[in-house]
Amino acid sequence: MNKILISSRAFKKNYKNSNDRIKQVLTYNPEGVQISFLNVKELLDYKPTKEVIDLLKNKYNVFHAPTKNIIYKDEEKSNKVLKKIKELYNKLNCKIVVFHYNNFKDPSYVADKLLGLNLCIENLDLRRAEENYIEKMKMFFENYPNFSLCLDVCHVLEHSKKDLFELIRLFKNKIKLTHWSYTFGELKHYSAKATIELAKSKKVEKELNELKETIKDLNQPIVLEINRRHVFNNFGLISKEMEYLKE
Q: Can you give the pTM of this predicted structure?
């Protein structure tokens, strides 16, 4: 059975403090938390409370590294960020660190600084990915075999469903984690269950059910990365999505 995790970013509109976001995630009783930081300042300022450290002890947690205003390379800013990531990885019982690979100037430098940690790169969305991004990913894994893949479902579907199956075919043994959400019209990182209810289409429901089974068949942890900016007061959205994944 797939472990189901929830990203702390799902509650960024409701709570400014990451400790409060994590505690809110845990009210849904997931198997773990994706502890996510968008920018460097947010990460460097973060201090986990003893309560949060204790709450995460028996969970399967992953860490999402900052993606804004940083390029990871051999310099002081990156050193500070990677040192903080390593510290929190151990304190918060994390199993994986996820990076966006377009934030790397020197992946081997990151791998050396985080030696002993499980590292993943995430496939990029249509806006940030290069035209031949799958070939670039193949080259990345050939050059840096210590990295695994976090398969972001919404990101790859922005390219095409064909690309989803191609990534699975090429990198199935590399996939150690999936980010689960859906793209529906202008709604990015949206809830699949809410999409079914909104579309009121048997065809859409069938396609999403098939997609869900494809992801579950990977037998890897699934992180709910639902962006609630359109419905940030709808706390029930997360519960519905968890139930949908467990069906």
A: 0.94
Separation CA 185–CA 199 (nearest Å): 11
CA distance 177 to 247: 20
Contact, 9 vs 35, CB < 8 A? no
**Taking a C-beta distance cutoff of 8 angstroms, is the pair 26, 55 a contact?**
yes
CB 30 within 8 A of CB 226: no
For residue 104, the 8-state DSSP code is B
What sections of the chain are H helices per DSSP? 18-26, 40-45, 50-55, 76-91, 107-113, 133-143, 153-159, 161-171, 192-199, 202-216, 236-246
pLDDT tens-digit series, residues 151-163: 999 999 999 999 9
Nearest Cα neighbor of 112 from 68, 78, 140, 88 is 78
pLDDT tens-digit readout, 205-227 = 999 999 999 999 999 999 999 86
- For 128, the token pair is 């940030």
Measured between alpha carbons, how far is 152 from 34 in angstroms, rounded to an integer?
A: 13
Q: Please report, for the chain, the start and end positions of each structural domain, with discontinuous segments joined by +.
A: 4-246
4-246 CATH pick, 1.10.10.1800, 3.30.70.940, 2.60.40.350, 3.20.20.150: 3.20.20.150
